[in-house]
Specification:
binds iron/sulfur cluster, alpha/beta, single chain, TIM Barrel, 9 strands, 13% strand, globular
């Protein structure tokens, strides 16, 4: 008999189908696979007192990812200084930075045997560097314990933290990801604390600071954006030398979050993927369940092979 796993409250709160009249289509049914590996992943995370975006964001892929021991670590606490209307992470005044976090993350990465790991964080507008030095320390700590593990960071926009990229420029990461999340017109409603141009500039600056890393960005669709607006985001990202695009279906975490305007058919994602490739992205992942860190390890291998 498979062991029963107990996941966090955020997962239990999950309710994707709350917009009146908009029924979740069959292709968004999640396959639940509780395995020993899933429980093992959960144990490592709990024992090290770590947070994952898998749980905090109520990701629909958690069963698949955790059954392969893949988890995306969310550093710098579980409380975000922004309040994006799509996001399940709690907003408020965060706790102090945990000085042992770099070691704990590195221990977990080693125990899980990860060949590729994604590290993300909440927004920390309260810190003078936006949390960049903690990213640096986590990366260094992972590299010490697992030198061959490749590292992908998914960062906030480091608004008014001009020192952040200087801190990160000597860090040993392989992919820099910053999600655009949506089209320019919807920023005010969906990402009120963010700015479309600022996010693009961050991606551009990273390429200038670190020519050897891949840059990656993603959007959610189904928020009310038009087809043409999606194509414009693609063009904007390419103008700023972004290598890898992810496109996934927005799923409302609770009835208090931004509503889903449309559940797009898998064929629509395929169409967007083909267009994105024809426009010039090196790699594209577009599907209803695509998330920034979904299959990130396999995608990184593909990217490396493409440029080898
Ligand atoms: S897709 Fe990413 S966030 Fe979601 S469960 Fe997998 S690793 Fe976690």
């Amino acid at each position: 008999m498979q062991p029963k796993i107990k996941l966090s409250k955020s997962l239990l709160r999950r309710n994707y189908n709350t917009i009146r009249g908009l029924k979740k289509p069959s292709w968004l049914k999640v396959k639940i696979t509780n395995s020993n590996n899933t429980q093992f992943t959960k144990n490592i995370i709990t024992q090290n007192n770590l947070k994952t975006v898998c749980e905090e964001a109520a990701c629909p892929n958690i069963h698949e990812c955790w059954s392969k021991n893949h988890a995306t670590f969310m550093i710098l606490g579980d409380t975000c200084t922004r309040s994006c209307s799509f996001c399940n992470v709690q907003t408020g005044m965060p706790n102090e930075v945990d000085i042992f976090e770099p070691l704990k993350v590195a221990n977990a990465v080693k125990k899980l045997g990860l060949k590729h790991v994604v590290i993300t964080s909440v927004d920390r507008d309260d810190l003078s560097d936006g949390g960049a030095s903690q990213f640096y320390k986590v990366i260094s700590s992972i590299k010490k314990k697992s030198p061959s593990t490749t590292i992908e960071i998914l960062t906030p926009d480091f608004y008014k933290k001009n020192n952040a990229l200087d801190i990160l420029k000597d860090a040993s990461f392989d992919i820099f990801n910053h999600n655009m999340e949506t089209v320019r017109r919807l920023y005010w409603d969906v990402r009120p604390g963010a700015n479309f141009e600022r996010s693009l500039n961050l991606l551009k600056s990273v390429k200038q600071h670190k020519k050897d890393v891949f840059t990656k960005s993603g959007i959610m669709i189904g928020l009310g954006e038009t087809f043409e607006e999606i194509l414009i985001v693609m063009d904007d990202l390419l103008e700023n030398n972004v290598d890898f695009l992810t496109v996934g279906q927005y799923m409302r975490p609770t009835k208090f979050h931004y509503p889903v305007h449309k559940y797009h058919n898998p064929s629509y994602f395929k169409k967007l993927e083909n267009i994105a490739y024809s426009k010039g992205f090196k790699l594209v992942s577009a599907s209803p369940f695509t998330r920034s860190s979904f299959h990130a390890d396999e995608d990184f291998k593909k990217l490396k092979n493409l440029v080898a």
